């Protein structure tokens, strides 16, 4: 028996409820066990610095514009601060990506921490997804202010989340600590209720 066979997602038991509440207007599902690597470094160093070597590993530069995301080769780098990013990707790339980034940061004043077990990811999608989020989030989520490729650390119904819009439908990823995941899933399912009623009519 391996660690992978023993691993349990915080919301594995919600799969049936997510499926029952799905409509053409809004859908919710968990994306468990995504790779999440916290990277901290000074990106201002010149040619040959750690940021350049990290970009070579990821296939795209770390974003330096606040609340933006860069993406390549199935990996996304979310800006969390002037010297902090969250690199996300499929579960199976965690070990290889960690090793490559660790080598790229060798000799740098930098930090690389695998925080994959710290959060799970909820995906909210559909034409009404933004309306659902706006019930509990104070950010301006209108496309003119927050569109595909945007991310932010914010509160959703009093829960700290990393919010990332991945698609224009729209589709949002909500990265939430495992201890708050069930509360947030319950809140989202409740907030989706009115759109389920509209769909049934």
Topology:
Elements: H1 3-6, H2 15-21, E1 27-31, E2 35-40, H3 50-58, E3 69-72, E4 75-81, E5 84-89, H4 94-104, E6 111-114, E7 119-125, H5 129-134, E8 151-156, E9 159-167, E10 171-177, H6 178-191, H7 193-200
Antiparallel strand pairs: 1-7, 2-5, 2-6, 3-4, 4-5, 7-10, 8-9, 9-10
InterPro entries: SoxG, TrmE/GcvT-like
Protein name: Sarcosine oxidase subunit gamma
In a nutshell, what does this entry contain?
The protein has 201 residues and is α+β, with helices and mostly antiparallel strands. It contains seven helices and ten strands.
Return the CATH topology of the largest domain: Gyrase A, domain 2
Report the order of strands and helices.
Answer: HHEEHEEEHEEHEEEHH
* Widest sheet: strand ordering: 1-7-10-9-8
Percent strand equals: 25-35%
| CATH architectural name of the largest domain | 2-Layer Sandwich
Q: Rg, please?
A: 18 Å
Uncertain spans, ≥5 residues at pLDDT below 50? none
**Separation of termini?**
49 Å
CATH superfamily of the largest domain: Probable tRNA modification gtpase trme, domain 1
- The whole-number mean of residue pLDDT values reads 93
Count structural domains.
2
């Amino acid at each position: 028996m391996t660690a992978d066979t023993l691993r349990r997602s915080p919301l594995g038991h919600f799969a049936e409820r997510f499926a029952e509440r799905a409509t053409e207007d809004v859908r919710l599902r968990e994306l468990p066990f995504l790779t999440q690597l916290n990277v901290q470094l000074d990106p201002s160093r010149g040619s040959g610095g750690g940021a350049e070597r990290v970009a070579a590993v990821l296939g795209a530069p770390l974003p330096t514009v606040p609340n933006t995301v860069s993406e390549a080769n199935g990996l996304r780098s979310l800006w969390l601060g002037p010297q902090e990013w969250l690199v996300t990707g499929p579960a199976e790339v965690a070990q290889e990506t960690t090793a490559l980034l660790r080598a790229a940061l060798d000799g740098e004043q930098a930090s690389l921490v695998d925080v994959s077990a710290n959060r799970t990811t909820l995906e909210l999608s559909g034409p009404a997804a933004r309306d659902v989020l706006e019930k509990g989030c104070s950010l301006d989520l209108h496309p003119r202010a927050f569109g595909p490729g945007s991310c932010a650390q914010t509160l959703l119904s009093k829960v700290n989340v990393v919010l990332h819009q991945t698609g224009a439908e729209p589709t949002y990823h909500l990265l939430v600590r495992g201890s708050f995941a069930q509360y947030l899933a319950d809140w989202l399912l409740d907030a989706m209720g009115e759109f389920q009623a509209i769909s049934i009519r």
